[in-house]
């Protein structure tokens, strides 16, 4: 009887998460806005040796349909001709405010580069992304700025990964991205913001500058976006934008080694999360694991409650399949593999990440196409 109680209790916890988290995304509807925002926006892009990506994606930012914005490229000592390319683009696009800022950082990682870019921004509201990202439409700036309210200090956006056919690591990366987005966006919608994604986030310049010292004092290389939300967000000043026209796409890691090494590098940031946030995030995979363990235990022992447990589990699986499928449509996650099977992969990944003794090299602000602030769900970034 005790195993059945554990099974029901863990299943109840899982149901709370699905109703609280995934249903918010599944039934999300963009707020109707009669008057479009015309708040001046500074788009800040930090880069190092990203000339190739800038050649691919900068034009999509220049083509944004917004009446008052600038684009500031913050260069971390590139040696690939980034400066010359941006200067050429500035001449080719004289009607658009495109600027270049070179930074000689003294602090490892991206934090100082972003900070100097934010300081140099001409406008109070700053919209950040990466050089290897492509906006879903020319309405990206417009839709993100539409989420600004009177007391808004930050707007959290969604940044899906591009789909790569016949790649399991890409599928798992995109699914993790999807689950992570469901959590941090739905928590923010519930007025409990705890993280954001640096590839698609809007915030007040003064708020970031006031928070910067706290972020630096943590001593972490990564996690500037997470820590900013942890330290600066509250129940009143954080909004979300989940309109598909404001999504920001980029490529995921292409190998398991790169995927897990990046996740391992993110672990240190979680030590600076609020304990309530860590507990809320940890209970999701733990309760899922308990459901599986308890169910298998009853199956092996041929428990008298097995039939009742099977009925409950089938009903539960049908419910979460519907919720997650709806949420996947909202956040544009696609998969030929059943979403419930991916849940098992995700659980295994969570366990593997916690117990496997990764010893990755010291994180650096690299110049490859896969270097970015990635969404994190229980990665402690």
Task: Describe what this molecule looks like in 3D.
- It is a single chain.
- With 381 residues, the protein is of the alpha/beta class.
- The chain has one domain: Spore Coat Polysaccharide Biosynthesis Protein SpsA, Chain A.
- The chain has 12 helices and 9 strands.
- It has helices at residues 2-26, 51-62, 82-92, 111-120, 140-146, 168-189, 205-217, 224-232, 256-265, 275-301, 306-330, 339-355; strands spanning 41-47, 69-75, 97-102, 125-130, 134-135, 154-157, 201-204, 238-241, 248-249.
- The strands form 2 sheets. A 7-stranded mixed sheet has the order 3-2-1-4-7-6-8, sandwiched between helices. It has a two-stranded antiparallel sheet with strand order 5-9.
- α2 links the parallel β1 and β2 (69-75).
- α1 (2-26) packs across α6 and α4 (111-120) packs antiparallel against α7 (205-217).
- The model is unreliable at 357-381 (pLDDT under 50).
């Amino acid at each position: 009887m005790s195993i059945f109680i554990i099974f029901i209790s863990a299943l109840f916890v899982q149901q709370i998460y699905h109703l609280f988290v995934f249903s918010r995304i599944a039934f999300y509807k963009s707020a109707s806005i009669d008057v479009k925002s015309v708040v001046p926006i500074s788009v800040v892009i930090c880069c190092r040796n990203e000339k190739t990506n800038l050649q691919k994606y900068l034009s999509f930012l220049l083509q944004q349909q917004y009446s008052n914005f600038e684009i500031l490229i913050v260069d971390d000592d590139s040696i690939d001709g980034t400066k010359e390319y941006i200067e050429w683009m500035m001449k080719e696009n004289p009607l658009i405010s495109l600027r270049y800022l070179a930074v000689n950082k003294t602090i490892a990682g991206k934090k100082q580069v972003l900070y100097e870019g934010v300081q140099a921004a001409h406008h109070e509201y700053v919209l950040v992304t990466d050089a290897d990202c492509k906006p879903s439409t020319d309405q990206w700036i417009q839709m993100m700025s539409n989420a600004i309210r009177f007391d808004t200090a930050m707007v959290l956006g969604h940044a899906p990964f591009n789909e790569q056919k016949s790649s399991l690591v890409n599928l798992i990366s995109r699914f993790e991205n999807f689950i992570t987005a469901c959590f941090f966006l739905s928590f923010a919608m519930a007025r409990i913001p705890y993280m954001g994604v640096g590839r698609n986030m809007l915030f007040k310049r003064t708020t970031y500058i006031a928070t910067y010292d706290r972020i630096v004092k943590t001593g972490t290389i990564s996690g500037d976006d997470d820590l900013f939300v942890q330290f600066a967000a509250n129940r009143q000043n954080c909004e979300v934008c989940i309109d598909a026209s404001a999504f920001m796409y980029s490529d995921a890691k292409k190998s398991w080694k790169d995927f897990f090494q990046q996740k391992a590098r993110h672990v240190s940031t979680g030590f600076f999360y609020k304990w309530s946030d860590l507990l809320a995030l940890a209970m999701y995979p733990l309760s899922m694991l308990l459901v599986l363990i308890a169910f298998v235990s009853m199956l092996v022992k041929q428990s008298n409650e097995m039939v009742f447990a099977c009925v409950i589990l089938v009903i539960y699986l049908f419910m979460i399949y519907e919720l997650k499928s709806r949420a996947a449509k909202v956040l544009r996650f696609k998969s030929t593999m059943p979403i419930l099977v991916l849940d098992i992969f995700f659980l295994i990944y969570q366990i593997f990440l916690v117990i496997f003794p990764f010893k990755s090299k010291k994180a650096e602000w690299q110049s490859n196409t896969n270097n970015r602030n990635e969404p994190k769900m229980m990665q402690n970034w």
